[in-house]
Amino acid sequence: MDGPRILLTGGSGTLGTELRALLPGILAPTHRELDLLDSEAVLEGVLGSAPDVILHAAAYTDVAAAEAERAACWSLNVGGTHAVVTAAREVGARLVHISTDYVFSGDDPPPEGYREDDPPGPVRNYYALSKLAAEEVARSLPGSLILRTSFRPRAWPYPVAFTDVFTSQDYVDVIAPEIALAVRYLDRIDVATLHIATERKSVFDLAKRRRPDVRPGSKREAGVALPDDITLDVSRWRALRPHLAP
Ligand SMILES: NC(=O)c1ccc[n+]([C@@H]2O[C@H](COP(=O)([O-])OP(=O)(O)OC[C@H]3O[C@@H](n4cnc5c(N)ncnc54)[C@H](OP(=O)(O)O)[C@@H]3O)[C@@H](O)[C@H]2O)c1
Q1: Which of 22, 33, 61 for mutating ligand 1's site (highest number of atoms within 8 Å of CB)?
Q2: Sign of CA pseudo-dihedral 59, 135, 224, 156
């Protein structure tokens, strides 16, 4: 691959699978090959592959289960990010940390959505808390890029979708190419935080695009507290993007 040598964590995940296809030559050790819960192994693995960039997409992502499995969620999202930051510092790699719109409360968002520099929180659930803490760990490494996004698998997986949650998320095959573009031209991005998402819509409206028979539902059925409207303002990305694409 021309360009920077990139090491991806979470390469078998929903986002990671797309990124591997979009960034040929990317180094993508498996969970077994690079267990983020083992900080010494992470350091050793990163030193061995000497990346210019670490794209950190591995995480504990089960929002509902995180309420009961707090230790597992914290260990991977915060402790794992700490291990990645330590290794990145050691090898001199730039970190791109994948974060989430859930760092915002979803109460009274600005009309165009939350901007990168709006204060996060108070978060609605434990997963969001762990991701917010992970952002601060990532930010402790100078030059790191916190990339906040939100996506769904290529096909809408549920029979029901919420009409009372508003979001700028999109399907992973829409979001991943944008993230790949940002990573490919990372040397032209000098901001610390960037939102990559699409326009505001309800989760139900998003679901209908790929599953026309989806039924309307309410977030009250989710079994975990969810925010009302965590739309991200993506004007920073819209302004940057034309300077990246060849
Ligand atoms: N999905 C969303 O709606 C969404 C929204 C906003 C932000 N995000 C963020 O986007 C990123 C990717 O999410 P995703 O939905 O693509 O994740 P995912 O499908 O749940 O995949 C998680 C990945 O983490 C890996 N992993 C788990 N434990 C690990 C460990 N101890 N060491 C190393 N790797 C480990 C998994 O590998 P194995 O499968 O082999 O265990 C898998 O590759 C995450 O940072 C997430 O917080 C996701």
Answers
A1: 61
A2: negative
DSSP element (H, E) containing 97: strand 94-100
Beta pairing class for 166-167 and 201-202 = antiparallel
Check if 16 has its Cβ closer than 6 Å to any atom of ligand 1. yes
Q: Which domains does the chain have, with CATH numbers?
A: 6-243 (3.40.50.720)
Q: How many CB atoms lie within 10 A of CB 245?
A: 8
pLDDT tens digits, one per residue of 100-151: 999 999 998 999 999 999 999 999 999 999 999 999 999 999 999 999 999 9
Q: pLDDT tens digits, residue range 29-59?
A: 999 999 999 999 999 999 999 999 999 999 9
* CA nearest to 129, candidates 70, 203, 58: 70
* The two three-digit tokens of residue 207, written as one number: 């679901």
Cα–Cα distances in Å, from 182 out to 44, 138, 140, 193, 236? 27, 17, 21, 12, 12
Q: Give bridge partners of residue 96 from the DSSP assignment.
A: 55, 145
Centroid of ligand 1 to alpha carbon of 16 (angstroms): 8
* Strand 53-56 relative to strand 6-9, pairing: parallel
Q: Whose CA is nearest to atom 12 of ligand 1?
A: 57
Which 3 state secondary structure label does DSSP give 70?
Answer: helix
